[in-house]
């Protein structure tokens, strides 16, 4: 795929979308609070996760650096052969669609239970997916330009809410440190979470081709990890300091529950909708660029001239998945889509770049001879 | 953009306009009844509710010659809390809107049997407010409390809210919200909830007739989800000192010289718990630091430029507070054997390994724990007088 000079992304745009995507997870269901040991040391899981992301990311990072400004579908085909490369790219495209589906279902769960209880689910899902389609037609660059603006709102909300909630925080809940949990348990959870967070790594693998050559991918990733680790920790600490350790484990949307508790000077209260707005902005970056990138991969797989014909069919696929999940009363079906597939696709997303990375080392001379 | 596209855009905007009028989930003000306080009783298998609802027509408008009441009162019954709320609409025309409910009042019996199951609705529903105060109505049904106003406020909810808010000046009650209760309950602590009682008082100076007033002095103590007893006003103040929740109070002690008493205003108070273990025995040092001002003196101490007298008054205050705190600790240890003060948390923080084995038997260990209370008062100010008036009158 030829990267057009007009579609260059800056490192800040990539950084902004990366941070927004990660902070979204803490806005929605804050998995850190429930992962073992699920106690006052939860913030350490956030801290350790960055380390595991870097480790899991090594194969992708190497490939991205080795093939600067080359779309990954192209070098996948170059390294592992045309057909296997196309299959791997196709799987990656479907994988990228899973996340808009996953986070749309969570957001709909929230919207249905808190705001639009009577609005039919298919209408909410339709509006959300339509936004994704519209943004996908506008292109990746426009979406990432929006991220440049919205990231300040998202992290601003985290900072402001932490300050406003400070009067209700009890930091003694974090004591004793590391006494009720083992370092091994914390690391296991960090690895699990790192694998989950690696989903955005696959997204980065795709958009890194558009990163202007003057910026370093490694630097971009490291800064991103540091920033989102800091903000994820801040959100975990805020939730536990205000809600305690046990209560948030039983809440579907812990950060929302924390936001409802804010009452500073009797003026700043009932302001949780600002955090919901931040959540929705973060969600849009999970929906729109993922859908766009998925369509771009399909375009490469099928050798089409434009990604636009793929946008609507892929969006419809996401929509159907959302609707069937929501209407399916069989808990096993939900378990397949939210638990078993989650494990399986995490394996695929780590295994595919690793496989390509290993094959590259066997075929590096022939690849070099072909001018790469 | 050409004219054709502009027309299409305009058409699109015009088509969208009707959608701006509202949504599926709109709740218009004229269709809802905003509840301000809810009384809840679980009687066998049914839940009885008494609700106070704001009456928008009562806001300053005249109906004929008489001003409309600011609140309406309604009762309902259901198989569950939720069912009872919905059943209100069998009797009442507007749909109940819970988001501005300021207090939830449970009767004693419901509190004794536990109301966590009833609070589930409050924590689960988005249209409720987690910071509604929880109260236990002592000796009366919640429906007898709701409707009573005796302050300047014209609704029970606002009247009770102000009474609870006043606890910051007396320390003789507690301010526990539904959220505070659940947080404490989930974290394995022992929640303490506010109490409300109804009293009769003379309506006028001639005492020809009586009227009701409400009192929020004291606290209801819970073990798990069940209420196990009440604390009176001074005991509640002792509890607030022991838990570091006191914001202000007036402590009255015998004067250090002559007949009379001194009244110190607590400006600030903090607490610290030190834990030591001697073998199997657990020793706690509860240290309370108070910053105070001399607010009144009916005795004859020479407070003018006499540091030793000021020190003696401060020590007298410390002694009064110490006795109050010790009394409540002894009562809780002996009568209820429940750690409502958070000593277990301090032990957990300092001796995490030992806590793992003691955690499940803490209610057996706590009553035998040795707790030493030390109170230090820093008497900083004495107001606009340097000598008690009593001393001047006799000189």
Q: Would you write up a description of this structure?
A:
The complex is a heterodimer of chains A (372) and B (395). Chain A has 372 residues and is mainly α. Chain A contains 12 helices and 2 strands. Chain A has a single domain (5-369), classed as Hydantoin permease. A two-stranded antiparallel ribbon of chain A has the order 1-2. Chain A is globular and about 65 Å long. With 395 residues, chain B is of the alpha/beta class. Chain B is built from 14 helices and 16 strands. In chain B, the strands form 3 sheets. In chain B, strands 1, 2, 5, 6, 7, 8, 9, 10, 11 and 12 form a 10-stranded mixed beta sheet that branches. In chain B, strands 13-14-15-16 form a 4-stranded mixed beta sheet, sandwiched between helices. A two-stranded antiparallel sheet of chain B has the order 3-4. In chain B, a hairpin with a 7-residue loop joins strand 9 (192-202) and strand 10. The longest helix of chain B is centred in the last third of the chain and has 30 residues, at 307-336. Chain B starts with a helix and ends with a helix. The A-B interface holds A 113-120, 123, 172-173, 175-176, 179-180, 243-247, 250, 257, 260-261, 263 and B 23-25, 126, 130-131, 179, 182-183, 186-188, 345, 348-350, 352-353, 356.
Uncertain runs of chain B: none
Encode the helix/strand succession of chain B as letters: HEEEEEHEEHHEHHHHEEEEHEEEHHHHEH
Assign the structural class of chain A, choosing from mainly alpha, mainly beta, alpha/beta, alpha+beta, or little secondary structure.
mainly alpha
Helix run count of chain B: 14
Task: Write the CATH fold name of chain A.
Answer: Hydantoin permease
Overall mean pLDDT of chain A stands at: 89
Number of strands of chain A: 2
Strand content of chain A: under 5%
What is the CATH architecture term of chain A? Orthogonal Bundle
Biggest sheet strand line-up of chain A: 1-2
- Helix content range of chain A: over 70%
Query: So how many helices of chain A?
Result: 12
Q: Mind telling me the CATH superfamily name of chain A?
A: Hydantoin permease
The 3D shape of chain A can be described as globular
Amount of helix of chain B: 25-40%
CATH class category label of chain A:
Mainly Alpha
Radius of gyration of chain A: 21 Å
């Amino acid at each position: 795929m030829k990267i057009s000079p007009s579609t260059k992304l800056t490192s800040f745009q990539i950084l902004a979308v990366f941070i927004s995507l990660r902070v979204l997870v803490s806005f929605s269901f804050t998995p850190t609070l429930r992962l073992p040991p699920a106690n006052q040391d939860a913030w350490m899981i956030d801290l350790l996760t960055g380390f595991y992301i870097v480790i899991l990311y090594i194969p992708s990072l190497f490939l991205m650096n080795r093939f600067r400004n080359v779309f990954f579908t192209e070098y996948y085909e170059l390294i592992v052969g045309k057909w296997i490369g196309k299959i791997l790219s196709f799987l990656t495209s479907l994988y990228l669609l899973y996340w808009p589906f996953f986070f749309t279902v969570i957001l709909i769960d929230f919207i249905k239970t808190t705001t639009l209880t009577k609005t039919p689910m298919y209408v909410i899902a339709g509006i959300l997916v339509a936004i994704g389609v519209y943004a996908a037609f506008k292109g990746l660059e426009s979406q990432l330009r929006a991220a440049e603006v919205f990231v300040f709102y998202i992290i601003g909300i985290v900072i402001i809410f932490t300050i406003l909630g400070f009067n209700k925080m009890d930091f003694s809940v974090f004591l004793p440190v590391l006494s009720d949990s083992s370092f091994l348990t914390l690391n296991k959870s960090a690895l699990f979470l790192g694998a989950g967070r690696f989903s955005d790594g696959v997204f980065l693998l795709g958009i890194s081709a558009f990163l202007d050559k003057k910026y370093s991918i490694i630097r971009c990733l490291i800064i991103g990890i540091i920033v989102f680790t800091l903000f994820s920790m801040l959100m975990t600490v805020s939730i536990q300091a205000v809600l305690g350790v046990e209560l948030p484990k039983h809440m579907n949307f812990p950060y929302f529950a924390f936001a409802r508790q804010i009452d500073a000077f009797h003026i700043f209260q009932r302001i949780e909708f600002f955090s919901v707005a931040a959540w929705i902005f973060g969600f849009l970056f999970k929906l729109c660029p993922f859908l766009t990138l998925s369509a771009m991969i399909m375009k490469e797989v099928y050798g089409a001239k434009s990604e636009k014909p793929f946008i609507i069919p892929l969006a419809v696929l996401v929509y159907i998945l959302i609707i069937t999940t929501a209407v399916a009363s069989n808990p096993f079906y939900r378990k397949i889509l939210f638990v078993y597939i989650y494990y399986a696709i995490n394996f695929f997303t780590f295994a595919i770049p690793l496989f390509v990375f290993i094959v590259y080392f066997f075929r590096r001379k022939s690849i070099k001879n072909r001018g790469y | 953009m050409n004219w054709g596209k502009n027309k299409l855009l305009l058409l699109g905007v015009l088509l969208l306009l009707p959608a701006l009028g509202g949504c599926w989930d709109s709740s218009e003000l004229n269709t809802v009844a905003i509840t301000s306080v809810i009384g809840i009783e679980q009687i066998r298998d049914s839940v009885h509710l008494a609700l106070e609802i704001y009456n928008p027509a009562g806001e300053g408008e005249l109906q004929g010659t008489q001003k409309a009441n600011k609140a309406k009162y309604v009762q309902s019954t259901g198989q569950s809390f939720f069912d009872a709320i919905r059943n209100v609409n069998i009797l009442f025309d507007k749909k109940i809107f819970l988001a501005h409910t300021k207090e939830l009042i449970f009767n004693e019996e419901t509190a004794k049997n536990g109301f966590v199951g009833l609070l589930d609705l409050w924590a689960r529903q988005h249209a409720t407010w987690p910071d509604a105060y929880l109260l236990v109505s002592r000796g009366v049904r919640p429906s007898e409390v709701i409707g009573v106003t005796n302050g300047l406020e014209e609704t029970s909810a606002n009247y009770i809210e102000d009474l609870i808010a006043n606890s910051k000046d007396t320390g003789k009650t507690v301010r526990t919200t539904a959220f505070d209760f659940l947080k404490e309950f989930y974290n394995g602590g022992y929640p303490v909830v506010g109490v409300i009682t109804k009293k009769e008082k003379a309506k006028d100076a001639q005492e020809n007739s009586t009227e009701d007033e409400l009192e929020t002095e004291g606290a209801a103590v819970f073990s798990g989800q069940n209420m196990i007893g009440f604390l009176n006003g001074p005991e509640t103040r002792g509890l607030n000192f022991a838990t570091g929740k006191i914001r202000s109070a007036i402590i009255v002690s015998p004067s250090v010289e002559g007949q009379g008493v001194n009244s110190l205003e607590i400006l600030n108070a903090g607490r610290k718990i030190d834990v030591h273990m001697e073998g199997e025995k657990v020793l706690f040092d509860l240290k309370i630091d108070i910053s105070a001002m001399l607010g009144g003196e009916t005795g004859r101490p020479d407070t003018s430029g006499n540091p030793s007298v000021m020190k003696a008054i401060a020590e007298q205050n410390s002694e009064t507070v110490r006795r109050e705190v010790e009394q409540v600790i002894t009562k809780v240890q002996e009568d209820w054997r429940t750690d409502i003060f958070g000593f277990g948390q301090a032990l957990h923080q300092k001796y995490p390994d030992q806590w793992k084995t003691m955690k499940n038997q803490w209610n057996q260990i706590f009553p035998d724990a040795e707790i030493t209370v030390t109170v230090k008062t820093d008497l900083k100010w004495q107001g606009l007088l340097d000598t008690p008036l009593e001393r001047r009158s006799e000189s």
